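Please complete every field before forwarding. Incomplete forms are returned to the sender.

SECTION A: IDENTIFIERS
Entry label: holo-375
Bound molecule: S-adenosylmethionine
Molecule representation: SMILES string

SECTION B: INPUTS
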Amino acid sequence: MAAQDPEGAPAGPGQRREQFGSRFLSDPSHVFHHNAWDNVEWTEEQAAAAERKVQENSAQRVCAEKQVDYEVNAHKYWNDFYKVHENGFFKDRHWLFTEFPELAPRPNQNHLKDLFLETEKGGLSDCRNTEGGPGLTTEQRSCSSASLRCETQTAPEGQTQKSSPLQMCADKLPGSSATYRILEVGCGVGNTVFPILQTNNDPGLFVYCCDFSSTAVELVQTSSEYDPARCFAFVHDLCDEDQPYPVPENSIDVVVLIFVLSAVVPNKMQKAINRLSRLLKSGGMMLLRDYGRYDMAQLRFKKGQCLSGNFYVRGDGTRVYFFTQDELDTLFTTAGLEKVQNLVDRRLQVNRGKQLTMYRVWIQCKYRKPLLPST
Ligand SMILES: C[S@@+](CC[C@H](N)C(=O)[O-])C[C@H]1O[C@@H](n2cnc3c(N)ncnc32)[C@H](O)[C@@H]1O
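SECTION C: PREDICTED COMPLEX
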């Protein structure tokens, strides 16, 4: 599973990291002097060689039967991944708050503390089912709190409710009194969520995080850093249109997608982004960092691992897509969002021991839900 290593070079001690780093390779003969170089330019020959490599490794496609298995059992392949690696695979992100200051504490948030305390006193977070009786099927219901209404779904008669929202609403909706809500989708074992909770001391902050791997979610929930007063981790498949998110539309300030959309079959990406877009408040942001076209990981795939154009399956059954900037722009703008940032981060990583060079390509996007016109 060597292909999954979405990390860059850390800044030195005490250094403030520039966006996309600031170590530039001006003299190619110095390439093995450091472990990584930022913002590298590709030559035309290099780009052409990468294109040829992709044509080669895409020439033969995985058979239809196996493709169905990888799709239907996608969560199981990720469960197996986390059973093996637990929380030792993906490193915490030194770049997180430089690239996405939206996740860091907001300036002048002290006034929110008072608001938060007021809200707590008022006991706003009780969220109960207000409509419909038992036995109704897949019908949207709402349960209300003074500050947040959550969407729920009931199981058909005679079946057990497998998702947690209904149960949550009957008790208490986590984060209902928060003033700043972040939702991370495909959170894995919490390598983004835990740094946010550690760094962002905004008393109004609440972090929701989900993954379709129950093994990963369990690792998040059982971590000593997991604080149910500030965070709610739940199992959720972002492609499952019948499974509601436990938060209502227009309630989330920031949606975070870090190396997760690439794990989704391309023909389900648009609907997944549309749903997430609806959860955002007006003015809310969708943040993404993911694999870019011709990243080293794409060029390393062998013939027979390609599922469809730029979409591959790894040896362990997990899948990965390699995006262009335009494709991501289309996904987000079709979902009604406005571009704030859509950048390619090209980095040269170096294995000095083996004298190897590895060209990484990541894409970083920020798209905003338009503000409502003032009346
Ligand atoms: C490459 S890992 C990244 C994990 C995490 N975002 C990180 O950066 O450490 C991709 C994650 O997406 C999750 N995932 C893949 N497809 C998903 C889906 N349809 N719904 C929810 N999570 C999904 C996987 O279980 C895995 O945890």
